[in-house]
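Office hours follow-up: a student asked to see two folded examples consecutively, so here they are.
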Amino acid sequence: MPTAAPTVWEDFEVPAHARGGQATLNLHDHLAAYAPKRPGAHLRISSDRFGLEAGVDRQLEDAEDTRARLRWGPLAKIYRENDTSAFKKRKVIKPDGSIDWMVLRPEFRQLLADLANGVIDGVIFYDLDRLVRQPRDLEDLIDIVEYVKRPVTGATGGRMNLINDSDRHMARMMCVMALKSSEDTARRVARQHLSAAQNGIAQGRIA
């Protein structure tokens, strides 16, 4: 009697004992063996007043070192978010007239689309707090990672990889703490500006 063909996710074959069964497995060990041939690199700096891009250039060097260490293919696309906040939301009016408040990050959104559509088949990000500061953005990325089964890994610290379910849960907690840090900073800065204004001190950048 012929046996059923194994289930295959492109380059990855599901282990025999898991086919057709009810077992819930952490497939990270198998999926992590995949070496992207067309990875992308995400770089972000919140503030670059003079437009020198020195910070994102340093991040790119570290991302390239990580790519070489992992033996991934050459970087196919680089997503630069220089002088870009991942925290501040803007009011957005959608085509249907509805209103939303969201962080405007065209390069990050392009990364999500490219990963979902196979333009890139993996991502190296510098650090989680450079990648996301809003849980909504993180969940959008996680949704795609769970669908395409491709690695999204950090270049710093413990080199978090969102293809691993435990790392995804850790990323969620770290993202919430990063968001709190941003909100605390925003509150302190606003209070400082109020105090300065009450004392007649000029605010804002001087040309």
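And the second, which I mentioned at the end of office hours:
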Amino acid sequence: MSGFARDPKYYGDRLVYEPLERKWAGYHARHCGCGLDWLEGHAVPAGFTVIPRGRTGYYGLVGPGLTEGVDEEALTTNALWEAVTGTPGTQTWHEPVHITCRSPESEAARRAENEKVYGPRRERAEKAKAEPATDAQVKYLITLAEKVGKERFDAEFAKVIKGSDIAPRTPRQRCATAAKRLTKARARKLITALVGHD
């Protein structure tokens, strides 16, 4: 999302405006349509400076009326709007400043919180890659195979087992037997694919 930000790691002590590229490109195309890049053709000539944020492709803008010479309690993007669209800005609401602290302590806390939330999910996903398909999954796959036909079952089965050591279903092999060779994760993928063709 676009927004005003302070991020000492990337911008030092500067207040910046982080624009959402497609949002501002859309504003420019709709209200100007000159064919120029909105940033190079309008924002930079108007006195705004682009500050890269590492090598991510993201960046912040600083400049008069946007982040310089402004009341931080009453921030708007009117100055940038006028530069990009050629019409006066009419934003009457004020935007907050998003402050990101990237000290070693805060980064460690963020990683710990992420591990707490996503760690169990990753463990379950890894476990599902090795555990055999459940009886309920196999039973449901048999029902789906009857509905969609063996040809569709085989096509989707081949996609699901790609890159694994699971062999395709042989012509005389029952779909149930083939389904029992799947892991929980691959059975889930096959069910999703077959339900889409149900």
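Two things to take away from it. The chain has nine helices and five strands. The two ends are 38 Å apart (CA to CA).
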